[in-house]
Design brief:
Layout lengths: L3 H11 L7 E2 L1 H10 L8 E17 L2 E17 L7 H18 L11 E12 L2 E16 L2
């Protein structure tokens, strides 16, 4: 479960603009708590999201349950000289597309399903930084031998 490292590696490999510029949930939380924005642009953060369990099936010697796992990618593009954020929005659009194309239809080797786009939304424009969040969902399955 928790596919954050795999998604991070996939984006780093497929989206050159974000190579070496992806942070963790902890790093993102620290910036939010301090009211700061990333110093480099573009920047991104890969965060664990919700787990949602499906129907469970228990047989002799096996427990199975389908589940969905969400991974969020938060993108930040600075545009200090553009108070309206228009330039940042123009730079962010191809970045969003590149991240979606890198993740959708792909799965880690041991997953049963593939990542699909769940949602994407404008988070805000703060201190010259345009912030956008993309949520990806992976359909997978637990298989446990008790």
């Amino acid at each position: 479960m928790i596919r954050v490292p795999e998604v991070t590696a996939r984006i780093e490999a497929q989206v050159p603009a974000l190579a070496g510029r992806l942070g963790t949930a902890t790093q993102f939380s620290v910036l939010v708590q301090r009211g700061q924005m990333p110093q480099q642009s573009p920047a991104g953060f890969v965060l664990p999201g919700a787990l949602s369990g499906g129907v469970a099936d228990a047989m002799t010697g096996l427990f199975r349950q389908a589940f969905d796992e969400t991974v969020a990618v938060v993108l930040a593009v600075r545009s200090a000289s553009d108070p309206t954020g228009a330039k940042a929005a123009d730079e962010l659009t191809p970045l969003i597309r590149a991240v979606v194309l890198a993740v959708c239809g792909w799965a880690p080797d041991d997953a049963l399903g593939v990542f699909v786009l769940n949602s994407g939304d404008f988070v805000g424009f703060e201190n010259g930084t345009f912030i956008y969040q993309i949520d990806f969902k992976l359909d997978d399955q637990l298989r446990i031998v008790p």
